[in-house]
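hiii, so i know i said id send this last week but things got crazy w the move. better late than never?? heres the sequnce for the chain we talked about at the cafe, plus the structure i predicted for it. fair warning i was half asleep when i ran it
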Amino acid sequence: MNSLQLLAQQQTPQNWTLAWIVALGLLFALVAFSYGTRAGIIARATTKEAVRQPLFFLLLLICSAVLLVNVFMPFFTLKEDIRELKNCGLATLLVSGLLLAVWTAGNSISNEIEGKTAMTLLSKPINRRQFIVGKYVGILQAVLWLFLPLVMLLSFFIFYKVGYDQRETSAEISPWFETVKVMGMSIKWPHHVRVAAVSQIIPGVVLSFFQVAVLSAISVAVATRLPMVVNLVTCFAIFVVGNLTPLMVSQGEKVIQSEFVIFVARLIATVLPSLESFNIYAALARGGTVPPSYLGLCLVYGTAYAAATILLAFILFEDRDLA
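okay and structure toks below
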């Protein structure tokens, strides 16, 4: 029995009921915010601006091409090409979402402040805090619209890749659909092995969005004071260091063994977000999946860090001269 079949047997939809309820609740809260608050007006306008800009369609086109190439590219991983396709696909989603978020923050906040457009918005019954929150939520909505077609495309490619790799290794090819009984009726349903392979990336997509949400909050805070070029460099540096903080701390304690180095490493790991917590590469390497409880902990951590960063953005933007 191969790893895909074992993964298919491990799928327990009952354990994900609460996770889907939470996801639907967050989606409902997002819609209610966008259409029921003053800051939601800013959020909708920011989302439309982000979706209409050429970068959105450029990222969509480039990422689609990269995902397509990865389907047929040999990774030389000894029958683990599907795992590498998932890793590359999730990395593509993460990078594209981060680029869109930082670019939109620079255009929507920095350029509006420098071009005196923000002063016009704030002259209406919208205060500075609503302006920041609306911009942040609008950026997240734009990232969701970018993720939606890319996730659907990645899921289809993984669904197809299962049979493609089985054909390459002369193994038994899993059919596209199988007959299942639902309330006494026989219906066609996607084969459980292919569905298991696709469902394994769902936690990775969620965690990638959490990571983009945290970095978007940082980008919004930076954009209140600095231009877009500096914003890009800052977010890129935080992205790199944030993914290396656990390694920095462990190397400082085990290899360097210097109190000063250990203190600096722990200080950086405390101040900067622990982005390594949002990666599922280890779970994919083991052929397993991420439990809903871990997603809940990451949601709490990401929400707390993003909220603290947005509070910092309030402070930075409160006394910013817009005239």
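btw Residues 3-318 form one domain. thought thatd interest u
miss u guys!!
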